[in-house]
Automatic annotation (TrEMBL):
Origin superkingdom: Bacteria
Lineage of source species: Bacteria, Pseudomonadati, Pseudomonadota, Alphaproteobacteria, Hyphomicrobiales
One of the GO biological process terms: dGTP catabolic process
Organism: Bradyrhizobium australiense
Protein name as annotated: Nucleoside triphosphate pyrophosphohydrolase
Presence of the UniProt keyword Hydrolase in the record: yes
Disordered: annotated segments: 129-148
PANTHER family found in the cross-reference section: NUCLEOSIDE TRIPHOSPHATE PYROPHOSPHOHYDROLASE (PTHR30522)
Claim: Glycoprotein is one of the keywords in the record: no
E.C. number(s) listed in UniProt: 3.6.1.8
Length: 284
């Protein structure tokens, strides 16, 4: 089988990978739940390529993201639920319906302000139609939080859930109160550690993360951006450890934890004067 610009070739390759006996053992073991994390990861890779302005990488990452769509569609087809063509039909129908000012059968123009209102109205109609297709017990209760999209990254969704709840006064009034909650959650994790209960530890860790997002919201920090910044800081400081050891002809495996801690603090100390100088410059 050879590469092709035709989407049908990608669909054929995916089908071959999922064919029992002759297909790929790893691909055959996968299901919607096991592939979902890769789908999210590929979406982040696309966003990263855009942030870096790397169009060559963006081309590759978009291909990886497209593969995820084809993968899920193939698994659905195997269950006689829907196929890739149905996915394409659904999105084209949605785009045409949401842009009557572009694809209308009759001549007519909509003012820019009207385009947005029409888009929102049509989206609301589609949401109502989806709700009507669900079982009655799934639509019996309309929560204030129902409008918070489920597909967002967990940190972002936690932020949005908290913001929505805050609109009716369900919120902390002081960041220090949130800090107290964080200490409470940390104490609960410590107690769970004593009990050596893995499920409880996972649950309590989630509670701590949720409280940390709450603190970020109250101090005006974006938790996703804050964590990305910390990730970058961790990478810089760890790279310093590697460079210093390499200059001495040593590897990470040769170093003790105490040595690595010392080099970490060295990197941290080198960053602090630069941060202080930047802060002074900002005040000017």
């Amino acid at each position: 089988m050879t590469p092709s610009r035709d989407i049908s070739r990608l669909i054929e390759i995916m089908a071959a990978l999922r064919t029992p006996v002759t297909g790929c053992p790893w691909d055959l073991e996968q299901n919607f739940s096991t592939i979902a994390p890769y789908t999210i990861e590929e979406a982040y890779e696309v966003a990263d390529a855009i942030t870096r302005g790397d169009l060559d990488d963006l081309r590759e990452e978009l291909g990886d993201l497209l593969l995820q769509v084809v993968y899920h569609a193939r698994m659905a087809e195997e269950q006689n639920a829907f196929a890739f063509d149905d996915v394409v039909e659904a999105i084209t129908r949605k785009l045409i319906r949401r842009h009557p000012h572009v694809f209308a059968d009759k001549d007519g123009n909509i003012a820019p302000a009207g385009v947005k209102s029409a888009w929102e109205r049509i989206k609301a109609e589609e949401k109502a139609e989806r709700a009507a297709r669900r079982q009655p017990n799934e639509t019996a209760h309309k929560s204030l939080l129902s409008s918070v999209k489920a597909g967002q990254p967990a940190l972002t969704r936690a932020m949005e859930l908290q913001r929505k709840a805050s609109t009716v006064g369900f919120d902390w009034n002081d960041p220090r109160a949130v800090l107290s909650k964080i200490r409470e959650e940390a104490d609960e994790i410590e107690a769970a550690l004593d009990r050596k209960d893995a499920a409880e530890l996972a649950d309590e860790t989630g509670d701590l993360l949720f409280a940390l997002v709450n603190l970020a919201r109250h101090v005006g920090a974006d938790p996703e951006a804050a964590l990305r910044g910390t990730n970058a800081k961790f990478e810089r400081r760890f790279a310093h450890i590697e460079r210093v050891l390499a200059a001495k002809g040593r590897s990470l495996e040769d170093a003790t934890l105490a040595e690595m801690d010392m080099l970490w603090n060295e990197a941290k100390g080198a960053e602090q004067p630069a941060a202080s100088a930047s802060a002074r410059s900002d005040r000017r």
